[in-house]
Amino acid sequence: MERSPAQAELNGYLRAMAAGDHGALARCYDLMGPVVFSLAVRMLRDHGAAEDVTQDIFIQIWRQSANFDGSRGSPQAWLMTIARTRILDRLRSRKAGVVLKTVGEHLPDSPDAEDWPDDLAITHEDAVNVRQALAALPPEQKQVIDLAFFDGLTHAQIAAQLGSPLGTIKTRIRLGLIKIKEKLQGTPDTAPPGQE
Amino acid sequence: MEVNINNNPPDAAFLDEAAAGALGTLTAPEMAQFNAMLAAASPAARQAAAELQETTARLAAASPYMEPPARLRAGILAATAPGTFKIKDYRRATGERRERFLRWGMAAAAVCLVWSGYDIMSARSAGRQLTTLVQNQMQQIDQLRQQLDSQHIAISAMMDPNVRQVSLRNSADQKIIGKMLVDTRTNGVMIVMPDAVVPPNTKVKLAIAQHGQRMEVTADAVGAAPGAAFLHSLLPRAIDPSKPLDLQLNDGPRIAGSNLP
Q1: CB nearest to B19's CB, from A25, A115, A173
Q2: What is the pLDDT, as a whole number, of residue A89?
Q3: Are B80 and A25 inside 8 Å of each other by CB?
Q4: Where are the domains of chain B?
Q5: Disruptive mutation site among A14, A181, A183 for chain B (greatest number of B CBs within 10 Å)
Q6: What is the pLDDT of residues B181-199, one digit of tens each?
Q7: Interface check A183 vs B, CB under 8 A
Q8: How far is A98 from chain B (nearest CA, A)?
Q9: Fold adopted by B163-259
Q10: Would you call B177 an interface residue with chain A, using a CB distance cutoff of 8 Å?
Q11: Predicted confidence (pLDDT) per residue in A143-176, tens digit
Q12: Pick from A18-22, B14-18, B81-85, B200-204: least confident
């Protein structure tokens, strides 16, 4: 997968943080903080909770920066995995009775992405590409990826909500994610077996 | 979760689990099972799983952009600051006999207080009042510890070569009312005002203006010696400690800052 120039920068920051360079955390935050915060707001629909969890995430990144292994993936993927795990934990630990807004609300379908500035790890161009890739999915695949990624539902919850068999949900997620990957790569991947 | 992990390229069942793992839709036991499967998978399968993870990481770009508040950055840096004022180094360098004596003394006092509190409580039915007494005394001990900490933070900051000092004067009568210590690496500032009292753990609005630019942050009262205030904050951008600046606390009177001779 093509890497943005920010990946090398992030990689350097994580190494510096592992060596105790506190300034590197500030620079890492400048590059990734708004990305993490935007995702947290989108998933939690609560600015206060998003602030709390973003702080937790960067504290964890600071403490665990030495665990990052560049041979196993990009720094952005490592960081976003920590971020999503934390946000999902927060989302799933909410007490029953908290009513979230309608699923899919605020999720932009238009690929203009004018809102993203260009000085972050995710650039304006990245945002356009990702939104275009999502918008190009068949509706049933986009729906399950929205529910899984942005609403934090498990396979079983999505299956129950949509009244579809678990296997169908898994297949739709897999196919949707692979299509996004191919679209972002710009080259078609090896066609996996068992396509719908 | 029955999948064939020996196929190359990975089969659909493996990719189902990899996609679910990347999106975080697996339950904890399912995730543990998938991780075990991944560890035994072929390099091509592991590569496919890693690519799905990378793809998922990029999906955050589909969120509407939200500008985080400036206090979030400052809060993160404050919470992780490993040695803005190098108090540990200072303690190590000085041997800190008095501090150690006081710390052990306070610990011993705390043990005695708790012990005596426990003893009396078990002897009398009016234990609740005594518990309150013990708690109050423990609070006082904690306040004493905070005072010592804040004093040592200030002292150690003065010894740090990266920390510059700025004298603070009342703009009205030019009387010196305190000092500001500026850590030029982290933009951390510590304001020490001997004749002011700000209760520990309270927040103070701090405005700093220099070169025609003004910034407002929240400063934390990190402890207080009798009749003195210690305020700490991280500034969103650097200030030049060698140049004049203006300060305001809680929209109070203007304070002039200048390089300490």
Answers
A1: A173
A2: 87
A3: yes
A4: 12-62, 87-159, 163-259
A5: A181
A6: 888 877 888 888 877 767 6
A7: no
A8: 20
A9: Immunoglobulin-like (2.60.40)
A10: no
A11: 999 999 988 898 889 999 999 999 999 999 999 9
A12: B81-85
Residues 6+ apart with CB under 8 A from A186: A2
Contacting residues of B for A25, CB less than 8 Å apart: 76-77, 80
* A-chain residue closest to B237, CA distance: A26
Average pLDDT over all residues of chain B: 75
Interchain CB contact of B78 with A (< 8 Å): no
Q: Which residues of A touch B12 (CB under 8 A)?
A: 171, 174, 192-194
Which domains does chain A show, CATH number per domain?
A: 1-94 (1.10.1740.10), 136-196 (1.10.10.10)
Q: With CB atoms and an 8 Å threshold, state whether B55 touches A1.
A: yes
Tell whether the model's pLDDT for residue A187 goes beyond 60. no
- Supply the pLDDT for residue A190: 36
User: Smallest CA–CA separation between A119 and chain B, in Å?
Assistant: 13
Residue A59 contacts B where some CB pair is shorter than 8 Å = yes
Chain B, window 224-253: residues with a beta carbon less than 8 angstroms from a chain A beta carbon: none
Residue A18's pLDDT is 93
Most confident of A130-134, B90-94, B95-99, B120-124: A130-134
Q: What letter would DSSP give residue B136?
A: H
For residue B103, how many other CB atoms are within 10 A of its CB? 13
Residue B221: strand, helix, or coil? strand
Amino acid identity at A10? L
Q: Cα B223 to chain center, whole Å?
A: 14
- pLDDT the model gives residue A104: 43
- Look up residue B34 and give its two tokens: 């998938």
Nearest CA to CA, how far is A97 from chain B (Å)? 21
Nearest CA in chain A to B76: A55
ipTM above 0.90, yes or no: no
What percent of chain A is modeled with pLDDT above 90? 53
pLDDT score of B74: 92
